[in-house]
Structure formats: C-alpha cells, structure tokens
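$ ./design --mode recover --in tokens.txt
reading tokens...
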C-alpha cells in the first residue's frame, strides 16, 4: 500500500481542513472482504483516481461522507487509487452553507458542494498530474478557491481542542469557559458540527480508546476504560459497540495492520449483524 498525507499549506484552508491523503493499493495488500473506517465526527471527501469505489454498498467515483458518526465500509481492489480531504469537525458548515445536523451521516455525491463541471475538471487534473506532490497541490488549490477565507467562530476550535486534549470537562464548565449558555452551546454544535457537544465528546473518547487498544492490545479493558475517562468497562464496551459495531475483543480479532486510514477488515458486511446477535 502506498499512503501519503498532506497538511494544507494555505493558512486559510488549514482552518477548516485537517489533512489530505493519497492511497494506492497494490497486489501485495490483503484485499479480501471489506475495510472499515471508524467514525470520528468529521466530514470526508473522496476522489477516485481509477474506477468506481463501493462505499457502504453504494458505487461511487467521487463522494462526500458528512459529519460521520457511524462506521463506513469500502471494498478494496488491486490498483485502487483515491484521494481524500478530511475537514475539521466544523469545516463542512463553512463550505456548504447549510446546518450540519441536516447532513449528519449522509453519503452523497460531490455535487452536494461542487458543480458537475467543477468535479469533472478536478478529477481530470488529478488523474493527469504526474506525481503525488503535484496531485496534492492541485487538490489544495481547488479546495482553497471553494473555501475562500472562512470566518470561523473561535469558540469552535477552542471547544474541539479541549475535547481532543483528553481533559475531563463537563458541558456546564465548557459553556462557562466560552461565555455561552448551555442552550447556545448546543445550537453552536448542532449548526456547525451536526451533533450535540456531549455526543461529539463520546466519539472523540471512543477514537482515543481505539488508538490505545490498537497500540496496547495487552492492556486490560479496565485500564483503557479508565484512561479514556469511562465510568467503567461496561460503559466502554457499550460505546465501542455503538460507534464501531463490534466489541473491543472482536475488534482485536478483525483488526487489520495498523494504519491511519482504516481500523479493521471483515469478510462480509453481514458479519457484524451476526456478531451482535
């Protein structure tokens, strides 16, 4: 597998885009079954540089998955090449002027944001660009023109950074630190992130748990639970099933080789149904 990550150089773009990726699968990769990507409360755009890609059993060339709060699956194949753009939690609301909660967990074609002529043009340019570096430059320039200079509410990055830091903070304390009422905080998150601050925090905590479990598979679930701020192991397992679709022990059994781009692999999508019954 060839994987490269690119951090936007444009300071305005970096306010709403976390990173871009290039992924290419080769015959050396294990390609049987489906690859799963855990939810992380971000919006991700995908541009295929080869053929249609099967995402959640929907065939697509260029797609966007908005405000992701559930696991996404794609079907890998030899020669698969694609690029992604991962927005910050609030990034989509500054590109698409629509309340983020209206697009929660929605898989759409890129015409949700761009015109068909724009999509055709950028797709052709990405395929024609010789090097991966050139592809990143082309994609960054294209997205930058669409985003412009976003005027991001400074309370949003502050709140998200606080949640990501791992600090334990109540919604009341967060509201007070932002000089906003609880109701105002709820509305801010719903509009720009698509979900409540407490639900966003649950997803971030779940992702931390996944990372710890992947890197320290010998650690007990109780240790990981407390390290991530769960009340007990039962709450940890409940959240893991809610967001990942399987238990921590099942994740370790299905887990693919550690990667920034996927979390585990299963043979059939209905395997998850069987696991939960």
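writing sequence...
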């Amino acid at each position: 597998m060839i994987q490269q990550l690119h951090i936007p150089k444009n300071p305005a773009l970096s306010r709403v885009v976390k990173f871009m990726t290039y992924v290419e699968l080769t015959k050396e990769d294990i390609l049987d079954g489906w690859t799963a990507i855990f939810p992380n409360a971000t919006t991700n755009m995908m541009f295929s540089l080869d053929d249609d890609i099967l995402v959640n059993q929907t065939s697509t060339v260029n797609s966007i998955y908005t405000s992701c709060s559930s696991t996404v699956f794609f079907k890998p194949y030899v020669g698969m090449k694609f690029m992604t753009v991962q927005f910050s939690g609030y990034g989509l609301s500054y590109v698409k002027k629509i309340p983020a909660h209206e697009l929660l967990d929605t898989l759409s074609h890129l015409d949700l944001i761009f015109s068909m002529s724009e999509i055709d043009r950028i797709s052709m340019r990405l395929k024609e660009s010789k090097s991966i570096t050139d592809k990143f430059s082309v994609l960054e320039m294209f997205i930058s023109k669409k985003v412009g200079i976003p005027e991001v509410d400074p309370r949003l990055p502050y709140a998200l950074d606080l949640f990501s830091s791992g600090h334990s903070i109540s919604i009341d304390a967060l509201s007070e630190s932002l000089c906003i009422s609880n109701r105002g905080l709820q509305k801010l998150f719903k509009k720009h992130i698509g979900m409540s601050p407490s639900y966003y925090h649950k997803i971030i905590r779940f992702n931390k748990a996944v990372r710890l479990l992947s890197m320290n598979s010998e650690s007990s679930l109780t240790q990981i639970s407390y390290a991530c701020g769960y009340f007990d192991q039962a709450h940890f397992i409940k959240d893991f099933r809610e967001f990942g679709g399987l238990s921590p022990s099942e994740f370790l059994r299905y887990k693919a080789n550690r990667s920034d781009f996927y979390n585990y692999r299963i043979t059939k999508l209905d395997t998850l149904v069987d696991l939960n019954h």
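exit 0
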